[in-house]
Write a structure and sequence with these properties.
Helix content: over 70%
Largest sheet: none
Mean pLDDT: 86
Strand content: under 5%
Number of strands: 0
CATH architecture: Up-down Bundle
Number of helices: 20
Number of domains: 1
CATH superfamily: MFS general substrate transporter like domains
Radius of gyration: 21 Å
Low-confidence stretches: none
CATH class: Mainly Alpha
Distance between the termini: 27 Å
Structural class: mainly alpha
Shape: globular
CATH topology: Growth Hormone, Chain: A
Length: about 425
Amino acid sequence: MSSRYRWFVVGIFFAFMLLHQADKLIIGPFNSDIRNEFGIDEQQMGLIGTGALLVAAILYPIWGYLYDRFSRAKLLALASFIWGGTTWFGALAPNFQTFLAARSSTGIDDSSYPGIYSLISDYFGPTLRGKIYGLLQLTAPIGYMLGLVLALAIGSSLGWRNVFFITGGMGIVVGLFILFGVRDMPRGKAEPEMEGFSEIAIHKFEWKQAAALLRRRTLIPLFLQGFFGVFPLNVLTFWFFAYMGEDGRGYDDGLVFPIMAAAVLVMAGGAFLGGTLGDWLFKRTPRGRLIISTTGVLLGALGMFITLNIPNDQVTLFAVMLALTALFTLFSGPNVIATIYDITVPEVRSSALAIQYFIESFGAAFAPLIVGTLVASFGYTLGGAILVVNVTTLLICGLFLIGAVILVPRDIHALRTTMAERADETRALAKGV
C-alpha cells in the first residue's frame, strides 16, 4: 500500500467529515429563522438538537458492532447516503413536528464516525494517529464555519430549506467516492509488532473481547469524562451564534462573522496542535496524550469563565479571549481517541469508540435543551446559561481525565503484550508451523 493512497483515503474521510459537519451544524446559524418560521421558543428549539443527539447515542453501539464485523468502507458509504436522505427530509418538513422527526433522523449517520477512526488506525501506526485524528477533527470547527458561510452568503437569498438541499446532496456525492475509492484493511495491520508482515493472522470480533473492554481500567474515567466533555462544544455550536447576536451581546452580522471566524480557525488549529503534542509527549511517556488532554480541558474552563464575563462593549478583548479559549476546546478529542486505540485490540476498536461516543452523545443530547430550559423556564440570560453549563462540565471532565492519566500505562503495556503474542502467531503461520 503506497503512502499516497493512505493520504488519499484521509482526504476522502476529511471531505466526508467536513461536509457532514457543515450539514450537521448549519442549524446553528439558522436558529432564529427556524424558530420564526415554525413559531417555537428556545426550549422547543433545544429539543431539535437533543433529538438528533439521542438518536445518535442509541445507534452508536449498533454502528460499532457492524464496523467490527463487516466492511467499514461499505458501511461508511451507506452512512453518507443516509446523511443525504435525512437532510432532504428536513428540507421538506411542513411543520415543527415533522421537522423535529427529520432532524432527529439525521442522528442515524451522526453516529458513523467510529468506522472512520478504526479504519485509519489500520492505515497509520500509534505514533502518527494523534496527528491524523487531530487533522480529521479540524472538520468540526471548519465545518461549522462552512455552514456559517453558507448561511450568511446564500441563506438569505435561497432560504434555509434550499441550503439543506445543497448540503444533503453533498452526502450523496461523498458516498459514491467512499464506495468506489476506499479499501478496507486487515484489522491490526498498522500495529508496530506487525511491521514487515505481508499478511497477518486475522482475529475477528468476539463478544468475550468486547466484554473484556471493561477490564481496561483507563476506559472507565475516559467514558465518564466523555459524558461531560462534549457539553461545551454542543452548546457553543447550537447556541453561540444566537448569543453573539440578538439574544445576547447584540452584535450585528458584520461583527459576528469575523469574531466567529477567528475563533473557529484557531479552534481548528487547536485540534491538530493537540493531536501533534499528544503524539510528541506519548513518545516520551505513556501518559503523554492524556496529560495534553487534561491541560487543554482545564485551560478551556478558565478561558470560558473569563471570556463570558467580559462586558459587551469590550469587543476586541472579547474576540481575543474567545479565540484563546477556542485554542484549547478540541485539545482532548484526538488524544482520547488515540488513547482508546492504544489500549484496545484492533477487532473491537470500533465498538470501544462507539461506547465512548454513546456516552458522550447521551450526555450531550441534553446540552442544548438544558441551556434552552435555563433561559425559558429559570430566567437565565443566554450567556449566563452557557457559562454555567460549560464551565461546570469542563471542570468535571478534567477530574476524570486526571484519573485516566494515573491508570493508562498499565493498559498500554497489556495491549503491547497481546500484539507481541499475535506477531509470534503470525510468524509461526508464515513458517507453516
